[in-house]
Fold:
Amino acid sequence: MPAKPKLGQNFLNDAQAVQRIATSLGDLSGRAVIEIGPGAGAITSALAARAAHVLAVELDHDLAAHLRTQFPPARVTVINQDVLNFNFASALAEFAPALSAAVQRLLVFGNLPYGITSQILLKLAASHASLDRAVLMVQREVADRITATPGSRDYGLLSVTVQMYGPAEKLFTLPPESFTPPPDVYSTVFRWRFAPRFAELGLEEATFLPFVRKAFAQKRKTLANNLRAAGFSPAAAAAALAQAAIDPQARAEALPIEALAALWHSLQSPCPVGPAASLL
Structure:
């Protein structure tokens, strides 16, 4: 099947990489795996040989039809759908009772289209209750940002957002020639284990993540300046930073998640009054 560049299709042609990806998900016996964008089916084949069942979610109608001729429906269910509209909770409810093991959350693999990587990551985060772990392939620079640590050049909003839903680790990087057609960038495979930290840190998911967006709004500005730009008075920002034991000249990129959580708590206390109350 020829690739369609407008859909961001780059088919993996590296047999060794296919096996490395399949083993990166761990023991698949008795498990259901969701594959995002199976393409020509190279990784689908490796997953189907190991897992109880594979749900291949493919946007391209032609590829979906092709995949249905390649795999028996008892092993692989091909779903012709945009993954952004896919219901992971329904998939878990449908397939978990039929698996040999006790009810388990789903596993995910995806070679994510570069143009909608962030949207898919947010979709997976929103579906975390149905998911155990994911092995994902993204542009190398995106993987660097996802797995970055505080104080590094790549640490930012994407790092905090992904890591709030569980730890992420880079596994290996593939050159353009591992794909047909070869993309213009290197691709990195990373593993993401879903273990949200909101309850652990006493945070409200609905308000903490918007707060983080405000904190990283202007990466080169100090956190105090970003808070003021978000509507907090200088006095409220200074008081909250002091209460959270954060240097008033610190930038958000220097703070671990725990420090950002402490600042969020400080901003919810009675001290920072005024516009802040409407932003949290």
In short: Residues 205-279 form a domain with the Helicase, Ruva Protein; domain 3 fold (CATH 1.10.8.100).
